[in-house]
Amino acid sequence: MPATPGSISFQTAALPVQGLPLAPAVYLVGAGPGDPELLTVKAQRLISQADVILYANSLVPEQILAWARPDAERLGTAAMTLENLLPLMIERVRAGRSVVRLQSGDPSLYSAIHEQIQALAEAEIPFEVVPGISAYQAAAAKLNAELTIPGLVQSIILTRISGRTQVPPREDLAALAAHQTSLCLYLSARHVEAAQAQLLQHYEADTPVAICFRLGWPDEQIWLVPLNAMAAATRDHHLVRTTVYLISPALRGGAVRSRLYSPDHTHLFRPKP
Ligand SMILES: C[S@@+](CC[C@H](N)C(=O)[O-])C[C@H]1O[C@@H](n2cnc3c(N)ncnc32)[C@H](O)[C@@H]1O
């Protein structure tokens, strides 16, 4: 039945009590881009309750671990392979312990959880995925930008350029650029010349590009440049990692108004007077 104003009821689980033991399971938790205040409340709670915390040393700031129990086992995973990581998680859960695996940003993007999930399911280990704030969302917020402006751009593409991980040919950057959407480019600083050349096949040379380095970290930097200066700026600042690019006509600014809050636009919650 469609909801009508006044008839909506939210099914909220009772708030968990801090300190209650977590069920033995693996929790694949998005830790956001860096700023500890961009963790979800759920992520913070899981961190504060977990028996074991696995985290990528280079991507998760120390402050986040400050919420962990003093007796929690903390393991940096930067030097581990999946072959080390999986048996470790499985063994801890089989021993009755709860394992929080912190992933940078949101786990749905470039986080290699797919293979972890498959292996955990095969081993009959319970797991849960908890979303986080992705780098592109943190970037848009820092830029005070909406990436979907009516009449200008209504779609966002999240992608990367082919590097050591091959992107399927049908997702070539040039092919995606043809749509001239807001485009968020991950994992591409090392191949920025190729990225710029492919984007220039369809975007205007002066399309704004935000080059966002280590968002949410104390050394965060953001440069706003035209597309034809994207590669040079990346090289000038020696950026090779932890950089996300936002390429978007929406970053030009200008006065455009959405219909959502317009007085002549009625909807379920704002019917005609
Ligand atoms: C392995 S991917 C992980 C992406 C992550 N799951 C997310 O949702 O943001 C790493 C890439 O994400 C982007 N990234 C992650 N954190 C970032 C940050 N704090 N600042 C800028 N870019 C970041 C960069 O493009 C980096 O090369």
Number of alpha- plus pi-helical segments: 8
Q: What is the rounded Rg?
A: 22 Å
Structural class: alpha/beta
**How many strands appear in the DSSP assignment?**
10
Relative helix content: 10-25%
Mean pLDDT: 89
Distance from first to last alpha carbon? 25 Å
CATH superfamily of the largest domain: Tetrapyrrole methylase, C-terminal domain
3D architecture notes:
With 273 residues, this protein is α/β, with parallel strands linked by helices. It folds into 2 domains: 26-130, Cobalt-precorrin-4 Transmethylase, domain 1; 135-252, Tetrapyrrole methylase, C-terminal domain (Methyltransferase, Cobalt-precorrin-4 Transmethylase, Domain 2). It has 8 helices and 10 strands. It has helices at 41-49, 62-65, 82-94, 113-122, 135-142, 173-177, 192-199, 230-236; strands spanning 26-30, 52-55, 73-76, 99-103, 127-130, 156-160, 182-186, 208-213, 221-226, 243-247. The strands form 2 sheets. Strands 3-2-4-1-5 form a 5-stranded parallel β-sheet, sandwiched between helices. The protein has a 5-stranded mixed β-sheet with strand order 6-7-10-8-9, sandwiched between helices. Helix 7 (192-199) runs antiparallel to helix 8 (230-236). The chain is globular. Bound molecules: S-adenosylmethionine. S-adenosylmethionine (SAM) binds at residues 33-34, 104-106, 109-111, 134-135, 186-187, 212, 214-216, 241-244. S-adenosylmethionine (SAM) is lined by residues 33-34, 104-106, 109-111, 134-135, 186-187, 212, 214-216, 241-244.
Put the structure in a nutshell:
The protein is of the alpha/beta class and about 270 residues long. About 25% of the residues lie in helices and about 20% in strands.
